[in-house]
Design a protein that fits this description.
It is a single chain. This protein is mainly α and 308 residues long. The protein has a domain at 42-127 and 179-301: MetI-like fold (Orthogonal Bundle), CATH 1.10.3720. It has helices spanning 2-16, 18-36, 54-57, 64-71, 74-93, 95-105, 110-121, 128-139, 145-154, 164-191, 196-204, 209-220, 222-233, 241-247, 253-256, 259-269, 273-301; strands at 47-48, 59-60. A two-stranded antiparallel ribbon has the order 1-2. The longest helix is centred in the last third of the chain and has 29 residues, at 273-301. It holds the Pfam family BPD_transp_1. Keywords: Membrane, Transmembrane, Transmembrane helix, Transport. Residues 79-294 form the ABC transmembrane type-1 domain. It is a multi-pass membrane protein.
């Protein structure tokens, strides 16, 4: 009897929302074709893949490629470089959209607020090629505006693009400049749901602007912050190939070489498809573990937080 009621309710829901489900078809097809279907190719990480033989006929080698990767002297160097860039991004770049969203939320002049939002969204639509090109123009040792300015003020001419010590700060600053404005959208959407009555009650209680931000604004976006942090932790080993590859050169390679660039060098330029797939699969497994671990910790701290 209960099964019949559930079946009937499900049928009514399908009939009522049929056009909404119809609109889901392109998205579902996209994920099936471009996300799930290619996952079959992951099996070459456990084979000695030869293109002429195909995936099915290539020799099965088990975890041999993973063993080679972990025993390689490049592993610790790549892991260190990747984690440094990722955790600097989490510590510095991740809070930036939150801070900016809170500041924008405090603006009361709607026209000025929209103008500021439009200006800070623009960098997001620039490709990394353009961003790196602008960086080279500003920081070039020969005529770069920033280099000339630093020399004028401090009397020292620094080659920012070639000095390994400046590579990570420049990567983080590029990420902040390009992504902070766009990252505020989701936090501003969360703040839009805060009832004005909460601010009014805080004002009646004598709370100043800072107190209202601390006790009303920030708690309102706490759940959103936790979810975004969980998703960010899943991509700790994905530092972004385009940006790193374009900023990397022979002088800063010691700190610039990360898993993403290593996969390109080994898989594309050397043709070691199985080995590079094993490296990529390792990154994905670590990402899943970090997501589940961060979600578990978030739920232990606050039961209302988390993804699952």
């Amino acid at each position: 009897m209960q099964w019949n009621k559930t079946k009937k309710a499900a049928k009514q829901m399908w009939v009522r929302d049929k056009w909404l489900y119809f609109l889901l078809i392109p998205g579902v097809l996209y994920f099936l074709v471009f996300r799930y279907a290619p996952m079959y190719g992951v099996v070459i990480a456990f084979k000695n893949y030869v293109p002429f033989l195909g995936i099915a006929e290539s020799q099965w080698v088990g975890f041999e490629h993973f063993r080679q990767f972990f025993d390689s002297p490049d592993f610790l160097r790549l892991l260190g470089n990747t984690l440094w860039i990722s955790f600097l991004g989490i510590a510095i770049a991740f809070p930036a959209p939150i801070f900016l969203a809170v500041l924008l939320n405090e603006l009361r002049i709607a026209t000025y607020k929209k103008l500021v939002q439009t200006c800070i969204y623009i960098p997001h639509f620039l490709s990394w090629t353009i961003v790196v090109g602008l960086t080279h123009l500003l920081f070039s040792i020969n005529g770069g505006a920033i280099v000339d300015l630093v020399e004028t003020i401090f009397g020292v001419r620094i080659n920012f693009l070639a000095d390994p010590e400046w590579f990570r700060p420049m990567i983080i600053l590029q990420g902040i400049w390009k992504g902070t404005g766009w990252g505020t959208i989701i936090f501003l959407a969360a703040l839009a749901n805060v009832s004005p009555e909460q601010y009014e009650a805080a004002i009646v209680d004598g709370a100043g602007r800072f107190r209202r931000m601390w006790h009303v604004t920030l708690p309102a976006i706490r759940g959103t912050v936790v979810i975004m942090l969980i998703l960010t932790m899943g991509s700790v080993l994905n530092t972004g190939f385009d940006q790193i590859f374009l900023m990397m050169n022979s002088l800063n390679r010691s700190v610039a070489d990360v898993f993403d660039t290593y996969v390109y060098q080994v898989g594309i330029t050397r043709g070691s498809y199985s080995y590079s797939t094993a490296v990529g699969l390792f990154k994905s497994v670590v990402g899943i573990i970090l997501i589940l671990t961060t979600d578990f910790i978030a739920k232990k701290i606050d039961k209302e937080s988390g993804l699952f």
